[in-house]
Amino acid sequence: MVPENSKCVVTIVARDDRTVWMRPVGALDIDADPVLAAAVTRLSELAPRAVVLDLAGVTFAGATLCHFLVRTRTTVPGAAILIRNASPQVQFVMTATGIDGLVVDGAKRLPRSAG
To answer: Taking the CB of residue 27, how many other CB atoms lie within 10 A of it?
Structure first.
């Protein structure tokens, strides 16, 4: 369920190898917080060994992205978190806030899609 005022949707694909691909699409602003919180709750149920965040569809990112990444890290502390397809704006937000230290840039380590 997507709140009326949210312009964000998150697709979650769980693979047999305990890798979970998450694809948020839209603006990651305060209105997206309930959608992102629900995605993190689902992530905790899946107990992945790796989380791939494909950010190609993110149209805006601010503090909500940082909060989402921190929640993801604390929810699955042992899992690798890899970022794919982050725009320059998203990269800037992650670098400027220091949140990039919680994740790995997966651009050179993973295939282009979840399969």
So the answer is: 17
